[in-house]
Amino acid sequence: MQEVTKGGNTNLTALSEDSGSVVVSLGWTSASGAGDADVSVLLLGEGGKVRSDDDFVFYNNPAAADGSVQLLGKTPTDSGEEDRISLDLTAVPQDVVRIVVAASQYGDARFGDLDDLRMTVSDRSGEPLVGFSIDDAGAERAFIFGELYRRGPEWKFRAVGQGYETGLAGLATDFGITVDDGEDTAAPAAVPVPAPVGAAAAAAPAAVRAAPAADAPAVPALPVQRTARSPRTTKKKTTLPRSAGKSLAENDTWRQACLFPAPTLKSDREREVRATSILLSVMAQVPELGRRLTAGFGAPAGRMQTFTEVSLPHGDTPRRPDGVVRVERAGRIWTALLETKTNGNPLKPEQVQEYMDIAARRGYEAVITLSNDVALDGVPIVDVKVDGRRKHKVGLWHLSWAEVAHQAQMLLLHEGVGNPAHAWLLQELLAYLRHEQSGCHGFHNMGPAWVPVRKGVEDETISAGDERAVGVVESWERLIRQVCLRLGGELGQKALPVQRARRGSDPHARRVAAAERLCREGRLFAELRIDGTTSVVAVTADLRTGRIRTSAEVAAPEGAYPLPTVKRLVRMLADAPADLHVESIVEGDNGPRGTLERLRPEPGDLLPASGVPITGFRLSLIKGMGSGRGSAETGFIRSVDAAVGRFHSGVLAHLAGFDSRSGRRG
């Protein structure tokens, strides 16, 4: 990979023959775990300005209409997280000469609060081509990381590293987006949505719109808005109704007919064939899902066809991958082989190796593995040997069934699809994936080391350096990643594991250290952050006591009176579980604590007797831990998933804005 310094440029075409489709990654770390930024992409014409509002791609408009740009969302890495963007350079209109990649923060956050700011460009096989690190960020609230620009038939990359203390509004002005005067231009992010009407218009903050050409009609003001999460585009999208329609069934034993029935499945082979065929057929028929699942693997935006049980020559015996995905764009065909496993069955390295060899010989672009396992740090589940003498590179990628369900759920419940038939197909796909017989429930087994490690912790016979503990830590990380996928799909918000390690740190060394803590303390620990909340959720599984603790800290409003603050907290938690533990946090110490059941009649019990100021509160729920290694009703995996879901819905969901409202001193 070529490292570029600020202001430097390089020719992407010269670095790789597979640079027609690239994936741009923006990464950062945060010591507090709460740092975040929103990525945006601007398509610029000859004059250095956007051609229209459609040239602004952001979280509320995650894909360009022509498919040339698609935001792939955030991905956890070994040292933080990355926001990934798919750029199909072959699909970029000819009158677009520059593609600007930027990010913005909201509220009082600054890019100087984040560490290890970095931009990476990889080709369609996943090979990193160029990297650019930013080490001079300060008070900027918006940042241009870099840009891709045309030079004849080729594309080049330039490292920009330019920041704006005025936020995205200041950046937008430079590229033809006009911010109306007279409003609060410090709003965090620009979101081009239709102008609000009625009550919404009165509450709308600063307006942002594309500056029209001299002969163009006036464009209505577009509000700057960060909180709205559903897509706002000119095309109406179809999503699943929030409440189900009235059933015509005579009683509860009647089951609605399904497009993809699952109860008759009896063997693992049957499950694999059925699941592969269902998924590939829906991908081909619902372009939004097909594009979402393949864009990150370097697939172009184009016409997709999918196939199953294809016979391909390989020595004396033909091989039959579970599926083939082909995408045609401008006369070029991108091809990926698919190897599927269900019901927790492991992928076979020798089988994947054969498909990699076949793909290399036939000039295919990728091999995709799909199983219940969740990949960590973007690393494939299986190791294969790559012949460096071959000029043609094949990308090896992994999908989990949990990720497939997450993407389908995001489209169906939150972002919408093109027509009602597509929404119905996604609904049927989700129903199949969730069926107990489908074998597509995602990661659902803590592995063979779980039982002996747990017993060793309980008996205090396990010692530091036990390799089995490292395996348990890896399974724990996969579980937390899957919990985030499920929760994010339900909420329509980003949920990611928090990694506090510095960029470039060794993930294996981090897991070895966590395994030593497990052997010493008997506890597994993780943190996750949910967009829309100000708190980091801590999850602790204590193997000695058999209990799971979910907790979060919320800050007390600055300058507020103590008693009104605790009363307001208890009032906001009126519907929270009675067994919620609430603890006041004071400077350098822990304050009084108690369960919500005891504090409701006497909230003043949270006030420190010494009268020292309260800086915040620690909220915790504790529940029993499942004993089995799997995801059955009594299993450990399901108990962790349920604990996190209960904490969010029962506690965090009620506390929006607690640290920023009334109760202040006059």
Helix residue percentage: 25-40%
**SS-derived structural category:** alpha+beta
Quote the average pLDDT. 83
What's the tally of helices?
Answer: 14
Q: In order across it, which strands form the biggest sheet? A: 20-21-22-23-26-24-25
Q: In total, how many beta strands?
A: 26
**If you compute it from the alpha carbons, what radius of gyration comes out, rounded to the nearest whole angstrom?**
26 Å
Measured between the Cα atoms of the first and last residue, the distance is 57 Å
Can you summarize the main beta sheet? 7 strands, antiparallel
Shape: globular
- SS strand fraction: 25-35%
Poorly predicted sequence stretches spanning 5 or more consecutive residues: 180-234, 661-666
